[in-house]
Amino acid sequence: MSTATPLVFRSSVAQRSLTGLLFAGSWIVGIRLLVLLLQNLPRMHAALRLAQVSEEPTVLLWVSLAASVTACVLGGFLLALSLAAMLLVEGTQVFVDEMGIAVECLTVPGRFARWLGAGRLTWKEIHTLEKHRLFFVLRSGGNEEPGVISIKAANRPPVLRFLLVDELERLILTILERSPNLRFEE
Fold it and tell me: From the CA atom positions of the chain, what is the Rg in Å?
């Protein structure tokens, strides 16, 4: 493999289309629920006022109103997560060459992409390969010598994260073969 032709790993067409379908479906359901809440909000408000006027208990009406609004806020949060997942799956690419590995996320701004796990590590810098709940994570070892002052946060090697790639087994095997400092903790 030459440095002029790196291996490129990205999500497959099937993975991207499934993510797109989940994204579109969640937005359709979320918008429909919001419309239903907005249509029923005047009715719920009228029932609350009628119960107050007739001096009936209003606790159950307040609980149902609070539950409806809380469900809409939680649904909005889940819609934002589905958008983030769609952007990560669609725009993340993993490049492997003779020098090291690079993760790029092209669909989000640079600083946010770096926070999500974009960056580059050489093969010698990779010390751990972990599988977290959502991401595969590559970490560098940093300064492990006791007498050395730690590197500033801006110059610290990045932590690389990627979500889905096609041919994941090939990528993991390439990382295992080429990383001389990779260690496994039990």
Answer: 24
